[in-house]
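Entry 14. Ran structure prediction on the chain below.
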Amino acid sequence: MIKFSLFKNNKFIRWVEYGIGILLFISGVLLYLWISGYQVGWNLLTKEWVTYSSEEYCYSLQYPGRWRVYSSGDQGWHGGVRPNQRLMLVESPRILWLDQMDFTTDQFHMENPTLEKVAQYALQDSIHRSSKPQDVQPYTIDNKPALIRLFSESGTVVEAYISRENDGLILRMRTTGNKEDAEDMFQQIVATFSYSQQCK
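Output, structure tokens:
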């Protein structure tokens, strides 16, 4: 008597495995398209920019509505530079990839501040331990003189420096993704930046 079983047939097993592989691949593609569509839809729904304004620190700016906002008070955040106030804008996490941008504004008191002193002070921050800063270049923010510095081989893409009567401001863009995209976003945010030269 000959016993026959489909599951002992190697050819049948190969076809089953092949079919399962096709189904998994199609499911993965459909899931990717669904999530990507969700991400695009979310970005379209939140494409409007939001205004952040600080009367205490005398500046305002705009940022994409889908970004999250964090701020610290008089103690600042830990690091080489301890600002009196830090505002951090963080791009909402993307679902299928980890690339992310964040924009920070550090405000700190300084005696007789100048643009050069603010730029030098910024390099003390611990985030620059492995960075390669380029030379500062003249820049303009809110129709006032400023300095700008690009970075290479670091998460930091670009920084801009502002000196006021009693303090300094550091505007910084960091990213884990494409630096050109981050630099473009930096330019867009800084274009909305407005501040008073005198701030108590």
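Residues 36-46, 74-81 have pLDDT under 50 and may be disordered. Will compare against last week's run tomorrow.
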